[in-house]
Amino acid sequence: MKLIILDHYLEASEWAAKYIRNRIIQFNPGPDKYFTLGLPTGSTPLACYKKLIEYYNNGDLSFKYVKTFNMDEYVGLPRDHPESYHSFMWNNFFKHIDIDPGNTHILDGNAADLQAECDAFEEKIKDAGGIELFVGGIGPDGHIAFNEPGSSLVSRTRVKTLAMDTILANARFFHGDLSKVPTMALTVGVGTVMEAREVMILITGAHKAFALYKAIEEGVSHMWTVSAFQQHPRTIFVCDEDATLELKVKTVKYFKGLMLVHSKLVDPLYSMKEKIEPPKKPYSD
Amino acid sequence: MRGGQDSVRAPVLRFTNCRLLRAGKLLREDLWVREGRILDPEKLFFDEQRLADQQRDCGGCILAPGFIDVQINGGFGVDFSQATEDVGSGVALVAQKILAHGVTSFCPTLVTSPPEVYHKVLPHIPVKRGGPHGAGVLGVHLEGPFISQQKRGAHPEAHLRSFEANAFKDVLATYGCLDNVCILTLAPELDRSHEVIRELTALGIRVSLGHSVADLQMAEKAVQSGATFITHLFNAMLPFHHRDPGIVGLLTSDQVPAGRCVFYGMIADGIHTNPAALRIAHRAHPQGLVLVTDAIPALGLGNGRHTLGQQVVEVDELSAYVAGTTTLCGSIAPMDVCVRNFLEATGCSLESALEAASLHPAQLLGLEECKGTLDFGADADFVLLDDALHVQATYISGELVWQAEVARP
């Protein structure tokens, strides 16, 4: 894995946005070659989305040939409810950029047959040629998407009942009223994300520190489902200082030392405005 | 007429780079319009999987619902209370001219007149949708003749009437037809007024209290019978008294039925109401304040002498006097001037000032689902304003109907 450590939340978010930008531009997407992007929701990726919108507004990045697949959606929440993940993606990302609505895919938590909806989602990913880059976050209980502790590490898109930890964490979006928080969700499986060609996990804040420790310094365990990515060939963890608080000093020093080399992933920063052909293969070690 | 397959194919317009007035706040959002109505872009994105067909850059302007004037007696030489040969043209001229003031809907107002005038004029002022031809007519405001002799103001004494004999039947006989009427001002102290108020309210007509010497108790009874508006607060009514606040007391009365709001018109031309009085009313009951022009035919005629019917009027900036005297004879401040004056006099927020000229009059008339708001599904009647609230452009049903002249280099 690559562990990228920045000082604060904003710098970490900006690094992640720059990485996504470079990846899309270097991929050189077109009408017969879409860039497939997996996307998260929640408070962690907000600043990253803001940066991507800024790049679009400046003309440096276009989402015209990008297809997106969101990780999850609540079950039973009306699609236009302000806390649905459809509303989140519309308000925080889609309405500000030039993506074609037909190229966005979010699970429908109000489908008549939920498992059929999940199976269809897996098919859509397959039809799109698989996910090029899956961006995700981590829960305080170490989950990726809604793959709560105990989820199979080879799971596919399915219905999941939310753990109490997750419901408590989400209560703040429902005015602190636990009874209003949905208890079930549709989510991509750990196996689904593992099939992406590259995975980038954003982890910021001291409350995520223990989860990060369990995910990268302990073994692979279905109790901390993000740990599954220890077995993925191409994973990047982007963090701020606070998220590293539970890691060994040795681990942090090693990866901070590597920043000299890893910063080449975002510098030079490419733009769709330039005619220069960026190198096809991004820097990798 | 609307909806179905055709509406799905109709072009979608997106107004960008603007600040929308929505839910009492100015937000950096885009306005999406289709077939003259405001569209929910999230539904368009997820349900229809469509983007906008055309984009309009609003240059960073404030985008507010179009102003609604519920009391305007005429303008540009036209007097709505005159039974001319071509009433329709007169209304159309005013409707077209007030687009420049940001007004997208209005209620032509008729002052106390003999029954012949009402019978002749009213059928020629139908409710009409606005468009490039002019602001929409929401209905007629009848101010009088069932008002107090003592507080008649400039209304002709000879034509004042009462309905003590046959109540509502007298009302119908006087006006002829009430089909095009949406507001009626009367004095509640007149005998049998409560029967009349109830019948008018049942017809959907908003009853307004004005030109009256009613005390607070009488006014409260009128509100309980259905009255919902006060015509030009402070003017033509008993002054506020601490032991009997009169009609003014309705602003803070505890006898108003639950869930009902008493609205009140205010002329904020800087002349008819002292700014301190304006502030007292606004602070006491901000949700009910409705800005009106109460404009007379001299509106828009420019400085100098003008002959209007039997009167000669002298216009000097925003004041109109009976020629050769210092007697004020009506307001001539356009609606956008009233909004700016109101903002300055009360120090209220931009949002409050804009709502007083759009949302509140729409709520008074029960039209807030389609007028006076930028909510999804509402008619796309709006104005573009600069930060000092000068009108830059006026739109009705999403179509540009007036634009400020751009200074040529």
Automatic annotation (TrEMBL), chain A:
<keyword id="KW-0963">Cytoplasm</keyword>
<dbReference type="GO" id="GO:0006046">
    <property type="term" value="P:N-acetylglucosamine catabolic process"/>
</dbReference>
<dbReference type="InterPro" id="IPR018321">
    <property type="entry name" value="Glucosamine6P_isomerase_CS"/>
</dbReference>
<dbReference type="InterPro" id="IPR006148">
    <property type="entry name" value="Glc/Gal-6P_isomerase"/>
</dbReference>
<dbReference type="GO" id="GO:0042802">
    <property type="term" value="F:identical protein binding"/>
</dbReference>
<keyword id="KW-0413">Isomerase</keyword>
<dbReference type="GO" id="GO:0019262">
    <property type="term" value="P:N-acetylneuraminate catabolic process"/>
</dbReference>
<dbReference type="GO" id="GO:0005737">
    <property type="term" value="C:cytoplasm"/>
</dbReference>
<comment type="function">
    <text>Catalyzes the reversible conversion of alpha-D-glucosamine 6-phosphate (GlcN-6P) into beta-D-fructose 6-phosphate (Fru-6P) and ammonium ion, a regulatory reaction step in de novo uridine diphosphate-N-acetyl-alpha-D-glucosamine (UDP-GlcNAc) biosynthesis via hexosamine pathway. Deamination is coupled to aldo-keto isomerization mediating the metabolic flux from UDP-GlcNAc toward Fru-6P. At high ammonium level can drive amination and isomerization of Fru-6P toward hexosamines and UDP-GlcNAc synthesis.</text>
</comment>
<dbReference type="InterPro" id="IPR037171">
    <property type="entry name" value="NagB/RpiA_transferase-like"/>
</dbReference>
<feature type="domain" description="Glucosamine/galactosamine-6-phosphate isomerase">
    <location>
        <begin position="32"/>
        <end position="232"/>
    </location>
</feature>
<comment type="subunit">
    <text>Homohexamer.</text>
</comment>
<protein>
    <recommendedName>
        <fullName>Glucosamine-6-phosphate isomerase</fullName>
        <ecNumber>3.5.99.6</ecNumber>
    </recommendedName>
</protein>
<keyword id="KW-0597">Phosphoprotein</keyword>
<comment type="similarity">
    <text>Belongs to the glucosamine/galactosamine-6-phosphate isomerase family.</text>
</comment>
<dbReference type="GO" id="GO:0005975">
    <property type="term" value="P:carbohydrate metabolic process"/>
</dbReference>
<dbReference type="Pfam" id="PF01182">
    <property type="entry name" value="Glucosamine_iso"/>
</dbReference>
<dbReference type="GO" id="GO:0004342">
    <property type="term" value="F:glucosamine-6-phosphate deaminase activity"/>
</dbReference>
<dbReference type="InterPro" id="IPR004547">
    <property type="entry name" value="Glucosamine6P_isomerase"/>
</dbReference>
<dbReference type="GO" id="GO:0006043">
    <property type="term" value="P:glucosamine catabolic process"/>
</dbReference>
<dbReference type="GO" id="GO:0016853">
    <property type="term" value="F:isomerase activity"/>
</dbReference>
<keyword id="KW-0119">Carbohydrate metabolism</keyword>
Automatic annotation (TrEMBL), chain B:
<comment type="function">
    <text>Hydrolyzes the N-glycolyl group from N-glycolylglucosamine 6-phosphate (GlcNGc-6-P) in the N-glycolylneuraminic acid (Neu5Gc) degradation pathway.</text>
</comment>
<dbReference type="Pfam" id="PF01979">
    <property type="entry name" value="Amidohydro_1"/>
</dbReference>
<feature type="domain" description="Amidohydrolase-related">
    <location>
        <begin position="62"/>
        <end position="401"/>
    </location>
</feature>
<feature type="active site" description="Proton donor/acceptor">
    <location>
        <position position="294"/>
    </location>
</feature>
<dbReference type="InterPro" id="IPR006680">
    <property type="entry name" value="Amidohydro-rel"/>
</dbReference>
<feature type="binding site">
    <location>
        <position position="232"/>
    </location>
    <ligand>
        <name>Zn(2+)</name>
    </ligand>
</feature>
<dbReference type="GO" id="GO:0008448">
    <property type="term" value="F:N-acetylglucosamine-6-phosphate deacetylase activity"/>
</dbReference>
<keyword id="KW-0479">Metal-binding</keyword>
<feature type="binding site">
    <location>
        <position position="272"/>
    </location>
    <ligand>
        <name>substrate</name>
    </ligand>
</feature>
<dbReference type="GO" id="GO:0019262">
    <property type="term" value="P:N-acetylneuraminate catabolic process"/>
</dbReference>
<feature type="binding site">
    <location>
        <begin position="235"/>
        <end position="236"/>
    </location>
    <ligand>
        <name>substrate</name>
    </ligand>
</feature>
<protein>
    <recommendedName>
        <fullName>N-acetylglucosamine-6-phosphate deacetylase</fullName>
        <ecNumber>3.5.1.25</ecNumber>
    </recommendedName>
</protein>
<dbReference type="InterPro" id="IPR032466">
    <property type="entry name" value="Metal_Hydrolase"/>
</dbReference>
<dbReference type="GO" id="GO:0046872">
    <property type="term" value="F:metal ion binding"/>
</dbReference>
<dbReference type="GO" id="GO:0006046">
    <property type="term" value="P:N-acetylglucosamine catabolic process"/>
</dbReference>
<comment type="similarity">
    <text>Belongs to the metallo-dependent hydrolases superfamily. NagA family.</text>
</comment>
<keyword id="KW-0378">Hydrolase</keyword>
<feature type="binding site">
    <location>
        <position position="154"/>
    </location>
    <ligand>
        <name>substrate</name>
    </ligand>
</feature>
<feature type="binding site">
    <location>
        <position position="243"/>
    </location>
    <ligand>
        <name>substrate</name>
    </ligand>
</feature>
<comment type="pathway">
    <text>Amino-sugar metabolism; N-acetylneuraminate degradation.</text>
</comment>
<dbReference type="GO" id="GO:0106279">
    <property type="term" value="P:negative regulation of UDP-N-acetylglucosamine biosynthetic process"/>
</dbReference>
<dbReference type="InterPro" id="IPR003764">
    <property type="entry name" value="GlcNAc_6-P_deAcase"/>
</dbReference>
